[in-house]
Design a protein that fits this description.
The chain has 2 domains: 108 residues, no CATH class; 43 residues, no CATH class. 37% of the residues lie in helices and 16% in strands. The protein is built from 6 helices and 6 strands, in the order ααββαβαααβββ. It has a two-stranded antiparallel ribbon. Strands 3-6 form a two-stranded antiparallel sheet. Strand 4 and strand 5 form a beta hairpin. It is elongated, with a radius of gyration of 19 Å. The two termini are 28 Å apart. The C terminus is likely disordered.
């Protein structure tokens, strides 16, 4: 059963549909909508079980966003103002090299996944943050970060994306570039 079918089947449960105003929408990207956080937790738990059943060793990771951006686009490519992707990628590499040369004794800036770290300092990079903790994904889905400050959204919906990893080698690929 494709995950789309799993989503549709989950949202068709009569009790959940009534209690949580649960619905399945297939216009554009398939998604489940509800107004009860506990139902989100239940869906994530069951989706993880389903992924593991289908692909032993699979993991379901989460990404929380305050908006449903068209696709999961890394920050460096959002609002790029006409700069080519290649230029932005080269700029990221130049910044990494500069930091490594400037701070050779700082081990944090020597790591191969430096752009992942730089995001936490407000640098827009080619990386997307994903987590395995629903509470953290939920926090990011309901907060906007502006000028280094988190602002709780009081209206609208948050978005939590589920990403399934599966490999034949049992290794988890962390770099989703």
């Amino acid at each position: 059963m494709p995950m789309r079918d799993f989503m549709e089947e989950f949202s068709a449960r009569t009790g959940l549909r009534k209690k949580a105003r649960l619905s399945y929408r297939a216009d554009g990207r398939p998604r489940i909508c509800c107004d009860q956080p506990v139902v989100v937790a239940r869906f994530v738990s069951e989706a993880r079980q389903e992924a593991e059943r289908r692909w032993p060793g699979a993991r379901v990771l989460l990404r929380g966003q305050p908006e449903d951006y068209p696709g999961m686009v890394p920050g460096i490519f959002r609002k790029q103002r006409g700069l080519p992707e290649k230029t932005l990628r080269r700029a990221e590499v130049c910044l990494q090299e500069l930091l490594r040369r400037t701070l050779p004794r700082n081990k944090r800036f020597q790591r191969p996944d430096l752009p992942a770290l730089l995001q936490h300092y407000g640098v827009r990079t080619t990386w997307l943050d994903v987590v395995d903790d629903l509470r953290i994904a939920s926090w990011f889905s309901m907060h906007r970060i502006s000028d280094g400050r988190a602002e709780l959204r009081t209206e609208g919906s948050g978005w939590i994306y589920l990403l399934s990893t599966r490999t034949d080698t049992g290794r988890l690929i962390v770099d989703f570039q």
